[in-house]
């Protein structure tokens, strides 16, 4: 295949002039200036006219929850329209493998959804299931919470020596099967019950294998970020593991300060962030005690349906949740229902808990406050509910650009494809990066965007010869119209697809043509490997 008349850009900069790029056998064979000596003159099987668009390395979403959804054509289209050719799953400590996938399907049903084929076989089986079955590549972390569940079940206790050895063995096996690192979700169960000493033991095989410890830090971020970083530094100091902070969203001064502190400590640290202020999570996490949500869903539902138990939660627990992260005392107005599994609450999608409770009162004639409404939707949905979470002090676009332009930043959407009114980050993040950084804030050039969206992730997570447009590199490539690229998804209309990326190639196969799927499925499960392999 010949891609002709392209402006070639990767993190090393833009090559002067226009170029023809020849691809064969899944790799880039040559990059030659148009009209120069040695320009390609043969007859390729396929020619794609870039017409002066930017030819960039395929974007890598370093924090994705599309592990199970990536088989869906609508999800593939949503990602490819942003230029994403690879996602990294197994995030936040809860995933499908190792084990039979049941815990990930159960606890993170409102985040990861359900995997259509995986029913066991560990990381090796999970990755093999992507080979030739989807248009995109999928890499995975080994989720520490899932590992803990496999060995300790729903225990909230510290592990015994034998249990710790069992968990460490599962992590080592998952890394040997191709996982790119270990993830934790320390505000979720069962990760919330693991202390730094336990996590350090699980990170020892990660350090030995050259993987990365990826953490959703404990404590809700924002002004509490220092406490989470303290734990990251304790683990890094004990093991020497490379560390990566998930969705590091706080004021720019906090992010800069904590990154500087990690650098001074000698920790090899990076982070991902998306270009939106609001978050998204399961509703149960910020509003229910972990000691309750670690129990089987049917038990939790029985408790929440019991009037006496509700009264105790209202009196003893709910007064404390105003302090979670940055929600504040007006938390019912900060949480918007994005996915409610129970069909009888379809009407509530897109409403805050405050709005939904007021409407429920009007509809039923029975006074309903936000606490009762939240518990009602959790019971009716068997806990399968997610919410978009606002913060008290939203970042400005200038502040978001300042964070994303930091040298340790890596692109990650935290995209969730479950729900009728999801967070727009799933369908907008990777189109918003260039719009924000290049066109609106002039905080980075196109080479900086390539570093953020591709180059750094490929190196950091051992994704092989990706992340550059160069002879010999794997031909995961995207054509970007620099004047048109933008997200269309918004908080009000979150399902709209991005614009400005119409042609995408995975391993040299055209998977998006003219903005539409070609039906080709050259994607594969990516096993951790050093660049050059």
TrEMBL record:
Sequence ranges assigned to domain Amidohydrolase in this UniProt record: 46-489
InterPro entries: Amidohydro_3, Metal-dep_hydrolase_composite, Metal_Hydrolase, Metallo-dep_Hydrolases_sf
A Pfam family it matches: Amidohydro_3
Protein name: N-acyl-D-aspartate/D-glutamate deacylase
Gene source species: Agromyces marinus
